[in-house]
Amino acid sequence: MLGKKVGIVGPYKLTMQIIKNEGTVGLFRGLVPTLVREMPGYFVFFGGYEGTREWLTNPGEKKEDIGLFKTMLAGAVGGLSFWAFTYPADVAKSRIQVSNLEDNMVTTLMKISRTEGIGALYNGLAPTLVRTVPATATLFVTYEYSKKVAALFLQGCLT
């Protein structure tokens, strides 16, 4: 094995390999598990964000005016909520995609739990949570302040 050259497979070549080996349906492997993760996950994500914004809002203040730090904190809570809630589904989704499993999400979750223990559904959660804090804090600050800049810009254009 030493000395064997490994070729770089770009997106086009990989897509062609998948189509050749699995047909067009291979391009959608893992779509259902992804949707199973994303649909309730983003409910929790935005619920965590908006709920935290509401909680951090002082009486008589609008959510939009809570400031940079509180917006970042609310974004971090949204991200932490998402991953804490969806991580087992993400583990199962990844196994289905990478291992080319034909099992559905529930069967995969049950097999992992039975053979490796419940803890296996949370392997890698800690680094994911550490990563999501700055990522989602930045995401929501950028979103909220971009809305403010766009509103000011439009207001300037209309006057």
From TrEMBL:
Annotated SUPFAM superfamilies: Mitochondrial carrier
Give the bilayer topology.
Answer: Multi-pass membrane protein
Keywords, comma-separated and alphabetical: Membrane, Mitochondrion, Repeat, Transmembrane, Transmembrane helix, Transport
Q: Which Gene3D superfamilies match?
A: Mitochondrial carrier domain
Matching InterPro entries, A to Z? MCP_dom_sf (IPR023395), MCP_transmembrane (IPR018108), Mitochondrial_Carrier (IPR050567)
Q: Which residues form the signal peptide?
A: none
Q: What is its main location?
A: mitochondrion
Per UniProt, subcellular location reads as: Mitochondrion membrane
Family annotation (Pfam families): Mito_carr
Query: Positions of the Solcar repeats?
Result: 1-55, 66-149
For whether the record's keyword set contains Mitochondrion, the answer is yes
Record family assignment: Belongs to the mitochondrial carrier (TC 2.A.29) family.
Write the protein's name: Uncharacterized protein
| Source organism of the structure | Molorchus minor
